Prior knowledge:
The chain is mostly helical. The protein contains four helices and two strands, in the order αββααα.
Amino acid sequence: MSTLGLFVTGSAPLDASSGNNVRHRLNTGGNRALNSVLHTIAVCQIRDGGRGQVYYLRKIAEGKTPSEARRALKRRLSNVVYRIMKRDQRNHLAQAA
């Protein structure tokens, strides 16, 4: 399985707009175990402070609901974890060569 296949977490919202009503719904697909881990990380970052909490509060200030802000933080966290995994994979391949 490729690294990209591991990062279908279901953390990105799906468009559910109709006419003038613009809205999104929760994506129920993807790797549910990974989504659960991202949720736990997001909740801990929101609770304990730091950059995650700052990002969450900024989304709330932009008018997002708490669940929308948490979902945005989870999406951002999945991007961070993905970049770290890609970097580690490049380092591993460079050492093997």
